[in-house]
Amino acid sequence: MSSLKDQVVIITGASSGIGEETAKELSSKGAKLVLAARREDRLKEIANQVNQSGGQAIFKSTDVTSYEEMEELASFAQEEFGQIDAIVNNAGLMPLSYLNKQKVKEWDQMIDVNIKGVLYGISAVLPHMRERKKGHIINISSVAGHVVFPGSAVYSGTKFAVRAITDGLRMEESADSKIRATIISPGAVSTELTSTITDEDIKGGVEELYEQAITPDSIARTIRYALEEPAEIAINEIVVRPTSQT
Ligand code: NDP
Question: One Pfam family from the UniProt entry (predicted)?
Answer without folding.
Answer: adh_short
